[in-house]
């Protein structure tokens, strides 16, 4: 009987996992394998593990692998963990297990694609069966094309084409794994990978907020569909409410597939008696999954997206090198409450609401004139959902340097954004407790509050909460002038 390897990568789940289903269908014993790859070869997530600094994503990966190991052992299998170059490791594991087939779900990062292609070719030359599948997108980047047979640069036509092409893709239940004599294979110990941060353990609050793993992902989906989907259309812009799905870190590691989310959302919205409002909310939500696919579409067709401006005219932009301003931004000490609340939410919980991601990113790029790549790198380290496609595409969207981007002259005003999307200031009060007693008319602009109001709220500007590090109106003018300079050069 043929032994098969399922190479888990960004698909740490048993259900709706086409590679796992194919490995089980091959009929023989299945060896589940996860390889911790070098940053240069894989999807940019693996860093200097021995330093003990880790990233928020590494924290998630540790717990997600634990959860996957638990789910597999309940089915009589044990997860094989190896660290290093996948090409070599696959060869070793094939030799150790006498496997004749390997299955995996595809990835779309620039380094990863070429690497996988080469591995596939080499293994096939050795006579192995190698099959790969789509396990993480609604539609793969090459399958959605313009009429001229090219890639899309604008979201709405991309989204329309995706919906036209997609059809019904049934969700596959987790396969029942037949019992075979165990295939022996050496595995490293997860703890030895030192994925968790130490000295200091800055992720110690994450476990209160997150449940990594497939079961956590499914719970999160069910809770969202039951409680929040109906509010999503209006609520998705409100950081002070819990009305978004918070599925992003689960999607990041493939603990749930976008296909599962798609089908479950449609089912929830189509149950008899459900209103048009719910259907509209469901489509507003599914459209965001469409943005995720669009980010991957851009990354696949423009692999330099994480490193280079999509619009080359931005290469001439003169960015500030200002480490003090960057430090104030990253630690949530800019003096603009909505910006500081977002950056502290990120640090404490590994996640930030989308509206606030836009506000904080705009502040870094436009108020402080700091290169979007510096902000993207900070997000990549601190977000539990750090995703090379979504992160780069979104930062370029805010900067105005990306495809279908927000124009550069759209500068988010942190005061009016705060007042509109956190009208009572409860989001700010949660994350910036120094301001918690300030009345709502001053909560987004404490520097304008009368001395008596500050005193009563125990706010001492410059002492227990900073003065604004820039004046927004002046900074906005400076940003527009800098932008005009690159436009003038064209
Ligand atoms: P929901 O609103 O519930 O949406 C459901 C899913 O749709 C999300 O989980 C996500 O997969 C996808 N999605 C939602 N909004 C977007 C969007 N604007 N672009 C692409 N996909 C989207 N998202 C990441 O997953 N990883 C990142 O590293 C990341 N970096 C970002 C950086 C900046 C500067 C900005 C402005 C946005 C970034 N986003 C990123 C997109 C978005 O903020 C998050 O996906 C979203 O906040 C996750 O919360 P949620 O799961 O509750 O989203």
Automatic annotation (TrEMBL):
Biological process annotations from GO: photoreactive repair
Bound cofactor: record note: Binds 1 FAD per subunit.
Domain of life where this protein originates: Bacteria
Molecular function in Gene Ontology: deoxyribodipyrimidine photo-lyase activity; DNA binding; FAD binding
Cited SUPFAM superfamilies: Cryptochrome/photolyase FAD-binding domain, Cryptochrome/photolyase, N-terminal domain
The name this protein goes by in its record: Deoxyribodipyrimidine photo-lyase
Cofactor section: FAD; (6R)-5,10-methylene-5,6,7,8-tetrahydrofolate
Protein family (similarity comment): Belongs to the DNA photolyase family.
Organism: Limibacillus halophilus
Domain Photolyase/cryptochrome alpha/beta: 2-138
């Amino acid at each position: 009987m043929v032994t098969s390897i399922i190479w888990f990568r960004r698909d740490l789940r048993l259900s709706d996992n086409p590679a796992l289903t194919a490995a089980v269908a091959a009929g023989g014993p299945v060896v589940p394998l996860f390889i911790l790859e070098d940053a240069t070869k894989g999807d940019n997530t693996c860093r200097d593990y021995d330093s003990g600094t880790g990233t928020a994503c590494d924290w998630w990966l540790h717990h997600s692998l634990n959860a996957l190991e638990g789910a597999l052992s309940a089915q009589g299998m044990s997860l094989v963990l190896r660290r290093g170059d996948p090409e070599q490791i696959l060869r070793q594991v094939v030799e150790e297990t006498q496997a004749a087939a390997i299955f995996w779900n595809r990835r779309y990062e620039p380094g990863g694609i070429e690497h996988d292609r080469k591995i596939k070719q080499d293994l096939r030359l050795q006579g192995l069966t190698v099959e790969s599948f789509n396990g993480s997108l609604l539609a793969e980047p090459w399958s959605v094309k313009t009429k001229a047979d090219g890639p899309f640069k604008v979201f709405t036509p991309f989204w329309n084409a995706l919906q036209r092409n997609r059809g019904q893709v049934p969700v596959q239940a987790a396969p029942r794994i037949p019992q075979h004599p165990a295939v022996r294979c050496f595995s490293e110990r997860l703890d030895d990978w030192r994925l968790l941060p130490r000295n200091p353990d800055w992720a110690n609050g994450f476990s209160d907020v997150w449940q990594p793993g497939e079961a956590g992902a499914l719970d999160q989906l069910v809770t969202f569909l039951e409680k929040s989907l109906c509010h999503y259309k209006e609520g998705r812009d409100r950081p002070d409410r819990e009305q978004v799905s918070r599925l992003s870190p689960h999607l990041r590691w493939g603990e749930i597939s976008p296909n599962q989310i798609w089908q479950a959302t449609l089912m929830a919205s189509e149950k008899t008696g459900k209103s048009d409002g719910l259907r509209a909310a469901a489509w507003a939500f599914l459209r965001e999954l469409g943005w995720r696919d669009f980010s991957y579409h851009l990354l696949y067709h423009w692999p330099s997206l994480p490193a280079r401006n999509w619009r080359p005219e931005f290469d001439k932009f003169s960015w500030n090198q200002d480490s003090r301003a960057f430090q104030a931004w990253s630690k949530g000490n800019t003096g603009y409450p909505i910006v500081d609340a977002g950056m502290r939410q990120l640090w404490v919980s590994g996640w930030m609401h989308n509206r606030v991601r836009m506000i904080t990113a705009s502040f870094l790029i436009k108020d402080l004139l700091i290169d979007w790549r510096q902000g993207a790198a900070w997000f990549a380290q601190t977000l539990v959902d750090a995703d090379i496609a979504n992160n780069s595409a979104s930062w370029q969207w805010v900067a105005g340097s990306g495809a279908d981007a927000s124009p550069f002259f759209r500068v988010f005003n942190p005061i009016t954004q705060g007042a509109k999307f956190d009208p009572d200031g409860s989001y700010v009060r949660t994350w910036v407790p120094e301001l918690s007693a300030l009345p709502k008319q001053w909560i987004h602009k404490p520097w304008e509050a009368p001395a008596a109001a500050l005193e009563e709220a125990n706010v001492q500007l410059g002492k227990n909460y900073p003065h604004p590090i820039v004046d927004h109106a002046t900074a906005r003018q400076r940003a527009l002038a800098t932008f005009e300079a690159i436009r003038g050069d064209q």
